[in-house]
Amino acid sequence: MNAFLLSYTVSGAQKITTESNDDLEVLVTEESGRHTVTLRAKNEICLFLFAQSFPFSPHKDDLYFFNGYQSWTDTKECTPAERERDVNKVPRFLLNAFAFDRYGDASFYSYDKHLLHGYDVFYCKGKREKYILNLNYTRAYLLIELHKKKKTLNLFSDYNGYKVAAGTEFTVADYYLTDSVADGMEYFNTVFPRKNTPKIFGYTSWYNYYQNINEDIVLRDLAALDKQFNLFQIDDGYATKVGDWLSVDANKFPHGLKPIVDAAHEKGLNAGIWLAPLVAEAESELFQTRKELFKRDANGEFVKCGSNWSSFYALDLDNPDTRAYIQKCLHHYADMGFDFFKLDFLYAANLVVSEGTSRSMAAESAYAFLRECLGDKIILGCGATVFNCIDKFDYLRIGPDVSLIFDDVWFMRHMHRERISTKVTLQNTVYRSFFNDRLFGNDPDVFLLRDDNIKLSAKQRRALITLNALFGSVLMTSDNLGQYDEGKRKLLSGALDLFYNAQVTGYARKGNIIEIAYTVNEQTQTIKYDTKRGILL
Asked: What is the pLDDT of residue 1?
């Protein structure tokens, strides 16, 4: 194993070591590509950082996969010449006003034009192959960083002052490393065997009406669904404010949501609901009247998570009263009969964490709590740190929101890496596809075939439904199917054939083109997707 260092404190004194000393004993094992570093504390220590570096010379033709920080973070195979967008380059007054730096890791990771980075899984294909998989993800993320100028591959795990008691052992690093991507993928598939995740074909209200939903719209679109569907999900817009989950807008839903649950069940569909259980917006009654339930940072300021709605803030999961409120809200909808819960903006769980807890530990605790609250209900996570969702959620969104314009409005392209974008989410759909049915069922977000209220071209809409059907375990739409003509119904039928019967056998990037091979109904097919134009060639 290459040299590494550990950063820690003893009795408040900062120390760095590369080997055993009077404070701790370091045990290093390496077997069949698995590298483990364990420490035995002789005195109580506060662990801060594990760091390791390898010589690594990038080649211009290499392709690097860096897994983005959370669900929405742009993730693809990239060349060494490409750069990661640093939202901190945005004028400070915009960051302060809209909190664009809060959606991903920009508030705690220092971006640099010479760096490419990601979390927990990495590979390089080309002149020099490399594959790394973090096996210690429940304790700390493994940040994997390529320094193009220094020609090094760097590994970091931040423990944020985690206390290791005297006389105890603690694994600070545990990862698999190989110089073969094929061997790495085989190892990944061994560690994470198939789950046989059920396929979801469903409707969600968001991408047509956004918050402008009401009882008439929802029931009309529900009536248009046929027996091929198995889920009907109400998205944001039913509550009076985000965070006030027990207050349904009576002007929009005068009879509440229970009749809609019953109507979905009468059609043989699971009933789904959207919540963002770990946040509340500034104008919510919860934030206005119960500020003790909200997380504060080291300066005593409330933890702002972004600019959606009237801006929104993280709830404090270290407070038992906060957990009681979240549990009450989730139980309310579970008891109403909802079968499926889309839980959103979950990155709020570890945007700011207390000293002594790593970001991964905070997310593990939060997501486990949500699973505990909902028992055996179906959970789709969204806006969540990826590896923490393993064994917590049934499905996970693996890209940002689909946009009604292919790459969103021009100025948003200069903002955070988690911005809405059909262009970005389709790339995530392809490159995160090896997670599908192993970590969880992949949700690539919706397809949209309608002609109104959309600026995606017909060819882009065809590419969207095709790639979603090939690579995901969830196929959702926000269209009113009652408005589909024969051509759209035929396109949907073909996509459903791919969704249930196709098996992707490989994909490869060549410039702006991704070549995709798959089998369906015992026939081998190949398609080419143009990532720049968003169409199939």
From this structure: 63
Question: Which amino acid type is present at position 521?
Answer: N
- Half-sphere exposure (CA, 13 Å, Cβ side) for 108? 14
Question: What is the C-alpha to C-alpha distance for residues 501 and 27, in angstroms, rounded to an integer?
Answer: 48
Query: What is the full DSSP assignment across 209-274?
Result: HTT---HHHHHHHHHT--TT--EEEE-SSSBSSTT-TT-B-TTT-TT-SHHHHHHHHHTT-EEEEE
Q: What's the angle, vertex CA 248, arms to CA 245 and CA 254, rounded to 5?
A: 165
Q: Is the pLDDT of residue 412 over 90?
A: no
**Structural domain range at position 38:** 4-69+109-191
| Tokens found for residue 265 | 């069940």
Same domain, 179 and 277: no
Residue 385 has which token pair? 């740190």
Q: DSSP code of 440?
A: B
Does pTM surpass 0.90?
yes
In this structure, what token pair is assigned to residue 287? 């934030």
In this structure, are 220 and 183 located in the same domain?
no
Q: Nearest-CA neighbor of 346 among 317, 372, 376?
A: 317
Other C-beta atoms closer than 10 Å to the C-beta of 455 total: 9
Q: Are 376 and 230 in the same domain? A: yes
**pLDDT tens per residue across span 353-399:** 999 999 999 999 999 999 999 999 999 999 999 999 999 999 999 99
Q: What is the pLDDT of residue 312?
A: 98
Write down the pLDDT at residue 411. Answer: 82
Helix (H) or strand (E) run with residue 371 in it: helix 359-374
Q: Is 152 domain-assigned? A: yes
Amino acid (one-letter) located at 427? Q
Which residues have a Cβ under 8 Å from the Cβ of 432 and sit 6 or more positions away?
A: 67, 75, 398, 399, 442
67-101 pLDDT tens trace: 999 999 999 999 999 999 999 999 999 998 999 99
Q: Describe the crossing of helices 320-336 and 359-374 by its angle, rounded to 10 degrees.
A: 40
What order of strands is seen across the sheet that includes strand 121-125?
24-31, 34-41, 169-178, 130-134, 121-125, 63-66, 77-78
